[in-house]
């Protein structure tokens, strides 16, 4: 599929916790036909460093075509607006 859309998803999957919002964002992206570059943050240190580097307070973080969309709620609003 040459026209397949691409998204990068940063989400938290720790040994004792998988972020449900990251799972939801991945499901939404896949259901909308996106090819997902799923970037797993596997430790609390990795999550904290990522949030500090990106200047965000939470994960997941969705990026589509270089545009930072935000978390799963932001993704739903973005897609509902017809932008995706």
* Oligomer description: single chain
Mean pLDDT: 93
| Gyration radius over CA | 13 Å
The main pleated sheet reads as: 5 strands, mixed
What count of structural domains? 1
Please write the CATH class name. Answer: Alpha Beta
Short structural summary:
By secondary structure, the protein is an alpha+beta fold. It is built from 3 helices and 5 strands, in the order ββαβαββα. The chain has helices spanning 20-31, 44-54, 72-80, and strands at residues 5-14, 17-18, 34-41, 61-64, 67-70.
Structure description:
The longest helix has 12 residues, at 20-31. With 84 residues, the protein is α+β, with helices and mostly antiparallel strands. The chain has a single domain, classed as Glutaredoxin (3-Layer(aba) Sandwich). The model has no long low-confidence stretch (mean pLDDT 93). Strands 1, 2, 3, 4 and 5 form a five-stranded mixed β-sheet that branches. The chain contains three helices and five strands, in the order E-E-H-E-H-E-E-H.
Write the layout of secondary structure elements.
Layout: E1 5-14, E2 17-18, H1 20-31, E3 34-41, H2 44-54, E4 61-64, E5 67-70, H3 72-80
Parallel strand pairs: 1-3
Antiparallel strand pairs: 1-2, 1-4, 4-5
For the structure shown, list the relevant keywords.
84 residues; alpha+beta; Glutaredoxin; 3 helices; 33% strand; globular
């Amino acid at each position: 599929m040459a026209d397949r859309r691409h998204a990068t998803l940063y989400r938290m999957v720790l040994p004792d916790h998988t972020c449900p919002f990251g799972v939801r964002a991945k499901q939404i992206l896949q259901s909308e036909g996106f090819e997902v570059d799923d970037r797993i943050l596997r430790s609390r240190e990795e999550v904290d460093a990522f949030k500090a580097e990106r200047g965000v307070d939470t994960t997941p973080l969705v990026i589509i075509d270089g545009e930072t969309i935000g978390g799963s709620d932001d993704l739903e609003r973005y897609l509902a607006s017809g932008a995706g």
